[in-house]
Amino acid sequence: MLIARLIADQQGIETRVDTATRALADAGMPVAMAGMLDFCGDVLQFALPHGDAAQLTALLVEHFGDVDLLVADHEIEVPRLFVSDMDSTMIGQECIDELAEFAGLKERVAAITERAMRGELDFADALTERVSLLEGLEETAIDRCLAERIVPVPGARTLVATLTEKGCRTVLVTGGFHHFADPVAERLGFERVVGNRLGVHDGKLTGELAGPISDASTKLATLEEERGQLGEGARVLATGDGANDIPMIEAADYGIAYRAKLKARDAANGRIANENLTSILKLLGIPQSDWVEG
């Protein structure tokens, strides 16, 4: 069984559904049902008795374009756990890149960040290198950066607040830093934060991390730890955009890549192409009348 949901442009929708249905049947994946969800007006759902999820996704993208979508091997339901990346997922920035600008190093640091997020560099090595470049920066620059540069992406607060209202536990897990993640989590309503800690001495950054590195394995371990406390059958949602998010995205029932790098997008069974995270609520089947504005 496969269930696919996508947020569809209504213009010419019937023709595109018919064309996609024929293409799926020709690929050996007959469609049992295709139609709009009554409680989420612009969400189109396909139900298939069997098929390959990756092939289904590819055919839907071919016929509907780069849309927001989610594919699952079961009836889609509201998750009981939500684990999310922070940088370029819950906020629109990469914190270390923005902080580096206060040291006059943004271009240099951002180039390393981009390569790491594409999976071209070892994350731990790239993180250590970038942090070392910030040695001597005044700690007060972090507060300025938070106030002047860091902005949640559209829909982030509504997504977290609505899932919380539905009984879902929310965890922010980042390869970034607690100096940023703690206030971001408080602002958005996350219940737990996992991340790296910047070394500070005499009010200045030491250029080192204080404690172990939070990386892809940390994100996966956090998801599995939290899932283990919920019991068998609890559905898990994970969102991220970079290569270090792939393990937790693959482990989740609903692994959604948000405006993601290619490797992360290909690893996910869901994707958000537009900017607003409330698309996730639509794909989960939560009507807008139930949304909680953050």
UniProtKB/TrEMBL annotation:
<comment type="similarity">
    <text>Belongs to the HAD-like hydrolase superfamily. SerB family.</text>
</comment>
<dbReference type="GO" id="GO:0016787">
    <property type="term" value="F:hydrolase activity"/>
</dbReference>
<dbReference type="InterPro" id="IPR023214">
    <property type="entry name" value="HAD_sf"/>
</dbReference>
<keyword id="KW-0718">Serine biosynthesis</keyword>
<dbReference type="InterPro" id="IPR050582">
    <property type="entry name" value="HAD-like_SerB"/>
</dbReference>
<protein>
    <recommendedName>
        <fullName>Phosphoserine phosphatase</fullName>
        <ecNumber>3.1.3.3</ecNumber>
    </recommendedName>
</protein>
<dbReference type="Pfam" id="PF12710">
    <property type="entry name" value="HAD"/>
</dbReference>
<dbReference type="InterPro" id="IPR004469">
    <property type="entry name" value="PSP"/>
</dbReference>
<keyword id="KW-0479">Metal-binding</keyword>
<dbReference type="InterPro" id="IPR036412">
    <property type="entry name" value="HAD-like_sf"/>
</dbReference>
<comment type="pathway">
    <text>Amino-acid biosynthesis; L-serine biosynthesis; L-serine from 3-phospho-D-glycerate: step 3/3.</text>
</comment>
<keyword id="KW-0378">Hydrolase</keyword>
<keyword id="KW-0028">Amino-acid biosynthesis</keyword>
<keyword id="KW-0460">Magnesium</keyword>
